[in-house]
Target: RNA polymerase subunit sigma-24
Amino acid sequence: MTDASAAISRAHQEQWTRLVATLARRYGVDLAEEAAAEAFATAVERWPADGVPPNPGGWLTTTANRKAIDRLRRENRRDPLQREALMLTDAGPPEPLGAIDDDRLRLIFTCCHPALAMEARVALTLRLVGGLTVPEIARGFLVPESTLGRRITRAKAKISNARIPYRVPSAQDLPARTTGVLAVLFLVFNEGYLATGPETDPIRPHLTAEAIRQTRLVRTLLPEDGEVAGLLALMLLTEARRPARVSADGLLVPLADQDRGAWDRALVDEGHRLVRERLATGVAPGRYQLLAAINAVHTDAADARDTDWSQVVALYDQLVRLDRSPVVALNRAVAVAEVDGPDAALVVVDELGNALDRYHAFHATRAELLRRLDRRADARAAYDRAIALAGNTAETAYLVRRRDELG
Model:
């Protein structure tokens, strides 16, 4: 990769969300994304020839603003919203809006307006805030790219037509938005934690860092909300393991095999503290708090063999009552295998086949259980299915190695 190509790739990771969020305040969501995309396209043309500018973020912002203004003038759109946008541009940086002056957080709350369907909220935010491509998001939703693209287009049109305000909502409006915001932040984090596509790095730290940063801001807005604290704890405990998650030769390292000395102890300690604080309130935990508690049990064990699997199963039993998704049931089965043995777990997993046949982790889990039962041919077939469905390069490499070890 040339220096210019590397700089553009790095700028896209670091600047996309900030750029779209800054432009959205002035021009609206739809034009903001178009102008940002055009600015990066111009960088692809110019930077290899002219050199990388000293301040790539400033160059992209200036270029994107010019593209947006040119688009408005070219299309001769002169309704009040466009006139206001041009006035804002001429007037310089606008005043801070809302309780927290953070354009990216305002963009998340704008995309997660309750007037939009939940799937549209999540898809639009992943595109604009996470910088994920339409194919990446479509894989996460298990829908065709064309379907996903239409959802995003309709969501942007509704924001424009309904004149949904670009701001952090008032205190009384926050609860209606928070569920969607947390769901989006969790999905952005997950895409960084383990990318879904083969064309990206297996782990995308800029996405996990941005998701954690935004969740911290939401917690500043809602310091007493248990689910916000739970999600932050879950992210921190998961992010703490990142240094040990991919081997030097590019293979995914499962939790049981990770070098726990490489974990980030500061993040582990902060995550544990948040979990303890929520338990001390005596309030029944929600989904994210239970997931954080499960991760706290895992990260509390100095060795994988010391994991309190009975407690993990008990926490999953609580979670299943709140979230009856087949993915939760699959994860619970992994814990059941450690308590009651692989036979008992395989019965549970096989019952999930209809719902999860297109989910690579289902087949990978099943392969591991069959391996433990010494059903080698069945395990190989399950590994083959998991490999065919997995997109992440590190995960695929790990699954191939596990399959080949069977001979």
